[in-house]
Amino acid sequence: MKVFKFGGASVKDAAGVRNLAEIVRSQGHNVLIVVSAMGKTTNALEDLVRAFVDKQTEACQHQFDTIQTYHNTIINELTGDFSLVHQTFAQLESYLSQPVKGIYDEVYDQIVSLGEVLSTQIIAAYLTQAGLNAQWLDARQLIRTDTTFREGRVDWDTTARQIKEAVNKSGVSITQGFIGQTEDKRTTTLGREGSDYTAAIFAFCLNAESVTIWKDVPGVLNADPKWFDDTVLLERLTYQDAIELAYYGATVIHPKTIKPLQNKGIPLYVRSFLKPDAPGTVIGNYERHLTIPSFIFKVNQVLISLHPNDFSFIAEDNLSRIFGRFAQAGVKINLMQNTAISFSVVVDNNPDRVPALLNLLKQDFRVTYNSDVELITIRYYDQGTIDRVIPNKKLLLEQKSRYTVQLVVKELS
Ligand SMILES: Nc1ncnc2c1ncn2[C@@H]1O[C@H](COP(=O)(O)OP(=O)(O)O)[C@@H](O)[C@H]1O
Ligand SMILES: N[C@@H](CC(=O)OP(=O)(O)O)C(=O)O
């Protein structure tokens, strides 16, 4: 069987849902479909959580209405029995009418996970009326995680057992990306953009023949077309090149997706939902690595420099203290570099996490930071490619390995 993953961009409106059905009809015999929340619903639900926890009743109601209206607009253009969708909105409304229960991240997961529940309920209803009888599966009952809310860690043994028992390998099934559940039945999410990872989890557990991620781009390109004009389609990629590109921030694939697929040799296709007959990119066990440079831009980064208060070296004890603080604050490091008595890191400038991290670090270190920096990564670089990306930018830090260069830059004002 195959696994197809459709992201929010592919199902942002009724036309997207119809297009999904056409792709499944023409290419998806014996397929499990993993779907994300529609359009930008996850962002909208994040705003709803903030308003709910901050007890901003009006903002909360407004956000709820906006999300419901958006989904109703899509439903109104489709045919099918959407009663489950209305039930989900009723459940959400009832949850929002009660006092906030649990820590922020837990509340976040109970609410934000509903984006995927709604999208799959709508699509399953549409597929069924279109004669594609889709089995709707609740990913919360299949993917078991620990209690790390917003970044649930998968319990592979339980997950594999539950998936093998529940999924029918013939016909069409549909389930939610991004969500799972703890042992005591509290919903978790797997980290933003985690639906690709869900597709890989299902494929791994089911020994699927392939995974296809349907995108609004022709495949994996050598740069994000939103930033670069002359992009080139990478027709074949090794798992290693794919994992490196994703890890450095090529948002076309979630970095956690590759490992489960590589471990079982399952090919990953990245194809266009706008041109479903085009071959796109295939990622697999190939001998040849990339031959052309790839560019990855991460904006809205912050460069943090730490200097031990007691002038001690950046050695094992200080390093373990630093990494402990980052883990405690839940902040991922995108780049790091040290000298004898200073340690520099670049992280996403996440307003929910970075201020708390800085406070923790200030307990032991003198902390300086530079916000609004960009992190540019070039894989298979040469000097010409570096020169191409740094005009009008001040270079703050550079790190080179044999195949990859990373540049921390700031716009020259
Ligand atoms: N190397 C790359 N190749 C192709 N697309 C890329 C690359 N890096 C970033 N992207 C961006 O990824 C986007 C698709 O991802 P995303 O918007 O998250 O889709 P979805 O909602 O389907 O998961 C593309 O529109 C493109 O701007
Ligand atoms: N809806 C979740 C999960 C996801 O992967 O979405 P998408 O496939 O649209 O990037 C998010 O936005 O984080």
TrEMBL record:
It catalyses: L-aspartate + ATP = 4-phospho-L-aspartate + ADP. GO terms for cellular component: cytosol. Substrate binds at T42, E116. Pfam families: AA_kinase. InterPro entries: AceGlu_kinase-like_sf, ACT-like_dom_sf, Asp/Glu/Uridylate_kinase, Asp_kin_monofn, Asp_kinase, AsparK_Bifunc_asparK/hSer_DH. Pathway: Amino-acid biosynthesis; L-lysine biosynthesis via DAP pathway; (S)-tetrahydrodipicolinate from L-aspartate: step 1/4; Amino-acid biosynthesis; L-threonine biosynthesis; L-threonine from L-aspartate: step 1/5; Amino-acid biosynthesis; L-methionine biosynthesis via de novo pathway; L-homoserine from L-aspartate: step 1/3. It comes from the Bacteria. Keywords: Amino-acid biosynthesis, ATP-binding, Kinase, Nucleotide-binding, Transferase. Residues 2-272 form the Aspartate/glutamate/uridylate kinase domain. SUPFAM superfamilies: ACT-like, Carbamate kinase-like. ATP binds at K5, F6, G7, G8. It is an enzyme of class 2 (transferase). GO terms for molecular function: aspartate kinase activity; ATP binding. Its EC number is 2.7.2.4. Gene3D superfamilies: Acetylglutamate kinase-like, Aspartokinase, catalytic domain. GO terms for biological process: homoserine biosynthetic process; lysine biosynthetic process via diaminopimelate; threonine biosynthetic process. NCBIfam families: asp_kinases. PANTHER family: ASPARTATE KINASE (PTHR21499), ASPARTOKINASE (PTHR21499:SF59). Belongs to the aspartokinase family. This is Aspartokinase. It comes from Spirosoma fluviale. The lineage of its organism: Bacteria, Pseudomonadati, Bacteroidota, Cytophagia, Cytophagales.
